[in-house]
Amino acid sequence: MRRQKQWPLRPLLAYSFCSSAAERVSNSTAAAATVAFPLKHVTRSNFEKTLNDLRALVKAADFVAIDLEMTGVTSAPWRDSLEFDRYDVRYLKVKDSAEKFAVVQFGVCPFRWDARTQSFVSHPQNFFVFPRQELTFDPPAHEFLCQTTSMDFLAKYQFDFNTCIHEGISYLSRRQEEEASKRLETLYREEGIDSSGETEDLKLVRLADVLFAERMKNMLNEWRTGLLNGGNVSSESPRISNESTRSTETVFHQMRPALSLKGFTSHQLRVINSVLGKHFGDLVYIHSNDKSSCSQDFVVYTESESDKENLMKEAKDERKRVGERKIQSAIGFRQVIDLLASEKKLIVGHNCFLDIAHVYSKFVGPLPSTAEKFVASINSHFPYIVDTKILLNVNPMLHQRMKKSSTSLSSAFSSLCPQIEFSSRSSDSHLQQRVKIDVEVDNFRCSNWNAGGKHEAGYDAFMTGCIFAQACNHLGFDFTQHSQSDNLAHNEKLEKYINRLYLSWTRGDIIDLRTGHSNADNWRVSKFKYENIVLIWNFPRKLKAREIKECICKAFGSVSVISVYHIDDSAVFLLFKNSELVWDFLKLKRQLESSDGPVSVLHPLSKILEGGNTGAADYEAYKEICSSHISEILFSDQAETVGVKSRTRPDPQDETDRREESTVAVTHKSSDLIDAFLANRVEVETATTN
Fold first, then answer.
1. Which residue windows does the record flag with biased composition (Basic and acidic residues) (predicted)?
2. 258 close to 284: Cβ distance less than 8 angstroms
3. What sign results for the dihedral spanned by CA atoms 687, 346, 103, 53?
4. Cα–Cα distance, 617 to 537 (Å, whole number)
5. pLDDT per residue over 434-480, tens digit each?
6. Which of 254, 506, 612, 662 sits most deeply, having the most CB atoms within 10 A of its CB?
7. Using CA atoms, how far apart are residues 690 and 408, in angstroms rounded to an integer?
8. Measuring CA to CA, which residue among 611, 580, 566, 574 is closest to residue 593?
9. Which residues pair with 122 in a beta bridge?
């Protein structure tokens, strides 16, 4: 899901025929048998079975399309993608979004070419996902933000929040699994923390505890005496008190006579354990889990010290095995991500850099601090990714076809897949040349459906895959000659598009996942240099961009300022003609603020500095502010909270490092196709949708 996604209001209509996997029906019968789009919904109740089926589908797939629905996109207005954002800042904003918002739906749609029917067979699946806390030894419960516009958008398209929260599939990232395993191992090793080995002398302060301990001592002594005197262990258990909430029962545990404890609080069980340690050398407290993971508490009689130690170790080992099973169970939906990563299939998304960042953050681990580190890591998990938005914007032929419409998901689907979206039984030769796509869910195969406008990640993934298939057809793929052994990811026609994603959801900067290089649209970047930019915040709100520019120009010359760009009402970017003016401005600002003489009052900059709270710094301070996990609504509040100070001159070492980093990270050596596209200044669509 992305901001302001728009959808056609008309229902999707059928165009061909419908059949099961085992049987075909006539076209006339199919025309009357239009069905709803066969999308498979997956929750906790059917996840395991679906996962088993999905393994075979992904293994046989030529490519897998994905799409995500999230609870929001931007945690503050200024965290939206802005014109003056450098590539590394854009990554930080995507990182912030992926870290703070939750994924609530995950669409997965494998596509397989069927040579017999000369069509792609798709298997759209819609997974409800929710970050539920499944482990008792987990860190604190997950937290995430909800953006009102995004939640309203989901509600508008009848998103089932109840199903998501109550039946959504939970998950652990690989990092969370590692941490949970380490935590379990620590609990296993530390004697005194596990409940069977806790024998410390518990100090009883409250009178109630003293009385309870005495009653338990008498009761346990009576029970033990009965056992040693040849009493029948199945006889009626001794009474503890008149309370009905607590009870004991004589049973066998691990072939040993034992007293089952029910209805006791954790504190009372600690008191019982303390009593055993002080007064009964051959009785031991055991906490265990049965096969259904229900906890049980026992006092067990042991025949010797070695028998006691063996029993405690057995119970301890069993608790560890139960914990390991719980961790494996809690992995949940991540098994789908592991499947996609292990099969190394071509992953297809639409404007999907934010989606991939979410996949990493939710299912791999914390996002790396820089785009370069992220690229190096994500490429090891998913070596082949295609963004259909890149295809549509960069390929000249596809771009020409899309020039009259936006490249949002819905618009691209309408333009490239009219035979699927509209009632197209037409004999038009242009439509006849399109790739045919069927849908199969639970052995029901269909080419004729009536999918309404309901918005779901599974259907988005299906549309993304359809767009990719048709785009490949336009690129000259001859699927009639396609065999199961062919790997689309290695096809030379796709080489220029593999692993190139838009770094932002609203700008045309392209990042190469193979190298980490950012191929920015050169004609726009050449308008300014980041070292020529000053960040100003907390100036009087009444000042507009034009007035700020006038004040600066009076002090430094009429051509000193190229432009002023509002970040929000409390901050602006100021683009100077050269970098020397940046440091002259910051130095002059500090001098004026340190003096209260008449020159300061009458100076042209006094309007900007009025109030004494105005802050200013270079572009690197903006990056520092964006890298913070904090997100205040106003940028000025963010700057103050982060603690960025005004700077009057650059640090020579920082300047050298920055130039070296820029040389390594940013390259203008893109593919011939992309260079030609940018050189001709073909307008890259600024995506405000999808």
1. 648-662
2. no
3. positive
4. 9
5. 899 999 999 888 887 876 556 799 999 999 999 999 999 988 888 88
6. 506
7. 5
8. 611
9. 111, 439
Query: Measured between alpha carbons, how far is 311 from 136 in angstroms, rounded to an integer?
Result: 24
Beta strands in 10-57 (DSSP E): 18-20, 40-42
Q: Distance between CA atoms of 690 and 685, rounded to whole angstroms? A: 12
pLDDT mean over 303-326: 88
Residue written as token pair 């669409």? 107
Could you give the C-alpha distances from 554 to 137, 561, 614, in angstroms and in order? Answer: 64, 10, 19
* Mean predicted confidence (pLDDT) in 572-587: 94
The percent of the chain in helix, strand and coil, each rounded to the nearest 5, is 45, 15, 40
CB 514 within 8 A of CB 574: no
Cα–Cα separations (whole angstroms), residue 337 to 48, 133, 209: 14, 19, 51
Q: Which of 420, 427, 483, 429 is nearest to 116 (CA)?
A: 483
Cα–Cα distance for residue pair 526/539, rounded to 1 Å: 29
- State how far Cα 5 lies from the chain centre: 19
Tell me the one-letter amino acid at 236: E
Q: What is the C-alpha to C-alpha distance for residues 451 and 428, in angstroms, rounded to an integer?
A: 23
Nearest in space to 335 (alpha carbons), one of 106, 123, 181, 65: 106
* pLDDT above 70 coverage of the chain, percent: 78
Identity at 527, one-letter amino acid code: K
Is residue 670 scored above 60 in pLDDT? no
Please report the pLDDT score of residue 77 as a whole number: 95
pLDDT at 233: 52
Which of 386, 372, 310 is closest to 111 using CA atoms? 386
- Residue 202's pLDDT is 79
- 67-100 pLDDT, tens digit per residue, is 999 999 999 999 999 988 998 999 999 999 999 9
Coil/strand/helix, residue 345: coil
Q: Which residues of 222-232 are buried (b: 16+ CB within 10 A; e: fewer)?
A: ebbebbeeeee
- DSSP states along 522-541: HHHHTT--GGGEEEEES--T
575: left (phi over 0), alpha (psi -120 to 50) or beta: beta
Please give the distance of CA 530 from its chain centroid, rounded to a whole number: 30
In terms of Cβ atoms closer than 10 Å to its own Cβ (0-12, 13-18, 19+), residue 80 is middle
What is the token pair recorded at 304?
A: 């010797």
Q: Which residue has the tokens 């045309």?
A: 508
Q: What are the DSSP E strand ranges found in 242-302? A: 247-253, 256-262, 283-289, 295-301
Side by side, the strands of the sheet bearing 533-537 are 561-568, 571-576, 533-537, 615-618
- CB neighbourhood size of 688 (10 A): 14
pTM attached to this predicted model? 0.81
Q: For 474, list phi and psi in degrees, rounded to 5.
A: -70, -30
Cα–Cα dist 585/561, whole Å: 11
Contacts 24+ apart (CB under 8 A), 355-359: 355/66, 355/67, 355/68, 356/382, 356/385, 356/501, 357/94, 357/95, 357/97, 357/98, 358/68, 358/70, 358/98, 358/101, 358/103, 359/68
E strand or H helix at 128: strand 125-128
pLDDT band at residue 258 using 50, 70 and 90 as cut-offs: very high
CB 402 within 8 A of CB 516: no
| pLDDT, position 359 | 98
